[in-house]
Structures are given as structure tokens and as C-alpha cells.
Amino acid sequence: MLFNSVQFLIFLPIVALLYYLMPRKARSFWLLVVSYYFYMCWNPKYAVLIAISTVVTYFSGIGMEILRKKYPDRDKYAKCVVAASFVVNLGILIFFKYFNWLLGIAGTALHLSLESPFSFVLPVGISFYTFQALGYTMDIYRGKGKISAEKNIVRYALFVSFFPQLVAGPIERSGNLLTQIEYIKDKKIDCGEIRDGLCLMLYGFFLKLVIADRAAVLVDYVLEGYTYYGFVELTVAFVLFAIQILCDFNGYTVIARGAAQIFGIRLMDNFRQPYLATSIRDFWRRWHISLTSWFTDYLYIPLGGSRKGTVRKMFNTMVVFLVSGLWHGANGHFVIWGALHGIYQNMAIMTQSVKDRLGVRDKKMSFGIRLFKMMITFILVDIAWIFFRADSFGMAIAYLKQMTTAYQNISLLSLTFAWYDWLILIVAVGIMLTVDILHEKGYKIRQWIYSEGCGLGLRWIIYMAAFWSVLMLGVYGVAYDTSQFIYFQF
To answer: Residue ranges of the domains in the chain?
Structure first.
């Protein structure tokens, strides 16, 4: 079930209405049932995988507590439980996501034709809920008794499968989401929370339907026939892809946050104006924050982080980004995308190391310098996006070669876009940038809309303008067919 589908627009109000009408003690169970139903709308049999991950990590947490009480001086037993949990969960993830790819690599290396005996569709969201469940296991292990394992299986199962963020994140931590789930029974109806959630969802639909899906029309069109175009057309296409992937993924996250808020649950903000970053390191503090923090806490720091010198820090950084690329998909071009960002990061580390030795301190940036650094950062990120979006490494190289050597003079209006599509896209992106800049400067737009300073009349004008812009200017397929969110494939 897609957020941008008619089914979801029927599903959510019914779920919310029954949620607030039923006894509070039944709310967790109700959300668990509808979360599994939500997931099973894609493929019912794959719900078994979520159940396995849930059961394994649930009993891992309880098992660690029991072992630590019985053997307080032997932490190796708890470590064995963590290892077993990782083996089972990562084993399932690797089998369904990477088995056929690894088999193909083995066949190529051995010069053999190896055909997979398995034929299956990648389970939606498997990377997200697997990492969320494993994060909980690690939190219990590292807590060493300070963080208690969840004893209520319904609450824990809901933590793993909560439907707004189940298939594309954000990857929540137990300290945030599970804690809120424990107090669901104490929450009362908060009209302000529900209103804010609906406004968030409306903005998420704006990002997805008006910007991302409109940009996707041109991006897909150009990529299908990229050999016929030159520098201008191909550059415009990939600038638009950068906008598309931000609005698509952030649009999903904003809708997820809004839907969760209707039930009184606040999910973490997964994006903080990433294209306003002034460096690659700054970009990764703003982009897909939940995944970045997961890799930082559970991979980068265990590898040694920055504690063992510059060379080791650079090695650890490259490992994290290579794994991050592989996390996105079983294909070499994702690994190259991750490697590029690892190289970017290591260049920044080396530059900072030289500055530290010379005693050079970063000065406060002027507007011009900040703008220049933002442009350079965006260009570097966009080059990496070429490898991310291409179907293969070879296609990405061919695209770059075509972009830098061909100079066809084709009108942008001929690229399957009418003039009004360009106008809508430019205005919509302008609105998004304005919102991002205001957020960057600390202005709380939604709070202002709700305040008395906005006024009732202006407030409803804004509501209706946003609603009708999404309804009338959104991009829909035949018979209002919906397009899948990009990160569903990961």
C-alpha cells in the first residue's frame, strides 16, 4: 500500500478513528494488526520475515538480561547472543537481497554459468526494519543493564513494524520510538498534534507528487535516450534527479512523520536541508540522518572511529561508505556511489589534518563563500548521483562521457515537458527552497501558521491553496496510478 494511493487515504482515517474510539489498552495491539496488514498488502508471505526478525531480537534482549544476572562477570555470553541475532537477521537480509548478485559474481570469477535456484522479489523495506531491530539488540547489549529489554511482545513487535516508517524509515532507535509506544495507553486526543500531522502529510505529498514525480518524467525520458543528448540536456536531467530523489525520499519521510503524529507518536526528522550543506561532511549530517547515525554508532565506532589516528579514521570512513553503498542495493554502481562519498570524506579529513598541523582555523563564512561552498558540494553530490541512478557502472561512465563530449542543441521544451510543466516545477522547487532556507534560519513555518499572528482567514487560505495545488498539480498516471517511492527498493 503506497502513501500516495487512494487505498491509503481510506485506510489511514479508518485506522485513526478506531484507534481513538477503542480502549487505550488495546491501542498497541490495534496498531500492530494494521501495521502487518499494511505490509501484507504488498506480499503477505513476506510478513513472516518481519515476524522472524522480531522474535529473534525480542528474545535476544531478554536473553542478554537473564545471562547478565546469572553470570555478571562473563559478558561473553551476552556477546554470543548479539552475534547470533546478527547472524540470523543479516543472514535473511543477505539471502533475499544479495544471494543472486553474489552468485553472479562467483560465476564470473570462476568462469562458470551459475543459475540461481531461487526466484523471489526483494521484500519491501527489509533493510530498514532489519537495521532497526538490530539497533535495538545492540542498544541492550551496550546498555549493560542500564537499558531494559522490552518484555511486552506486542509493544516490541509494533516497534519493529510500525506502519508509517516500516518500509522506508526513518530507522528509529528504541530510546525514541519504543519509549513512546510504551506510553500509548496514556495519550489523549490532541487536536493540535493531529492538525500538525495532517499539515506535515500535505507538505510531503507536495514534495512527492508535485516535484518528485514531475521531475521523474523528464529524468526517465532523458536517461532512456541519453545518447541523443548533450551537456545541457544531460546536466539538467541530473540536477533534476538530485531534486527528485530528495523530494521523493524526504516526501515519504515527512508523510510518515505526519501519519505517526496523528497517533501521538513523533518520528525523527530524517532530512535537514541537505542541499544547503557547505561540505560533504555537512551533507551527511543532513541526509538520511537515521542511516548515517546507525552506521556511525554500530559500524564506524566499533571499527575504532577516529580514535586511532588519521589513517585508521580514513580507512574506517571508507568502509562505512562502501557498506552504505552496498546497503542501497546489490549492484556495483551503488558501491561506486558509496566509494565516491568515501573519497570525498577522506579528502576532507586530509585537508582538516593539514589545517590542524598548520594551526589554521576556519573563519566565519561570508555569504559569498557559503554560497560557493554550497555549489561545490552540490556538484560533487550530483556527480555521485549519476552512479546511483544509472542501471550499471558502465552506463554511468557512458553518461558522463556523453555529457562532457556531446553538445547537441536541443530545446529543453522538447524534452517531453510543456512550458507549463517547467513553470510548475520551477515555482514548486522555489517554494521548497524558501521553506528550507527559512528552516535553516530557525523560522518555524507551521507554528506561525497555527499562531494568532497568521489569522484564521489567512490560515485557511494557506490550507486550501496547499490542498488544491497537490490535487490539481500533482503528477498522476493513467487512472490516477501511483508511482512507487524510490527508497522502497532498498
So the answer is: 6-186, 191-274+407-489
